[in-house]
């Protein structure tokens, strides 16, 4: 979907149409959840601090998110997809992979299916979507971004490798800013540069991600469309109106964050085996610390105990704390909820 949250708001309030719009907190410490294309022309992007967004675009209009509305629209769109295939892998409320190798409604080509889906989304929701059509997930994702907004782009098998070689590596889905900087430091600027590297070289510098980079540089990606993908983690975080400097204050604000996480876990009835603490400092640098128990964390107190132990492990704070977050991952049934000292570990990356 094109600027999904912002587009829904502009659809529902004609006074917002054509105006630079941000969905998210307008407070000094808020964050932009989504930006309209009018706002993006000023450099406003999702995950940007609201104060930065307002500085880039003084005329920016902020609206509070309405997630129940976005979820309802997402369900409408999912229902359209299901008329064409059962092989649907949602990535978020506004994005999904569809495998139409053997579609329910055969229109002659995947391109024709994409064209009809886009037309139905516009007719039934009043919103625009962009589609990428290709023979694997990596290229379909690249294609979907290529003609936004309201675009349709196709990468055929004959075009795949050559299409990739002309792109800069920061355009590759799955290559984040840190990895892109590392690649540039190794002289890898484009897909062609990446394709020139040997598999041993990529394994040496990028570990288990090396084979993936070796493949996508050649337009190859054998990942299937995975339906009913289980939730891998559940988390919550809070950005504070004032930075935190003392441990008691940090522990106090950690309580409601854990409460929110536990309420989601309790609804799902599945317990995680890893608790991760996220700390963002006043200079916007982020660290994470994690604790694991193979028996699982099966109570709110166990999750808080792990998170608070992790928080104490990074105190005294090197700088004041702007944000704290807690997530639980590695879901599965577990009879015990205790954390052992030997379970503590610090993840790499």
TrEMBL record:
CDD domains, A to Z: PolY_Pol_IV_kappa (cd03586)
Gene3D superfamilies documented for this protein: 3.30.70.270, 3.40.1170.60, 5' to 3' exonuclease, C-terminal subdomain (1.10.150.20), DNA polymerase, Y-family, little finger domain (3.30.1490.100)
Catalytic activity: DNA(n) + a 2'-deoxyribonucleoside 5'-triphosphate = DNA(n+1) + diphosphate
Catalytic residue list: 95
Cited HAMAP family: DNApol_IV (MF_01113)
Family: Belongs to the DNA polymerase type-Y family.
Annotated protein name in UniProt: DNA polymerase IV
Taxonomic source organism: Endosaccharibacter trunci
Gene name tied to this protein: dinB
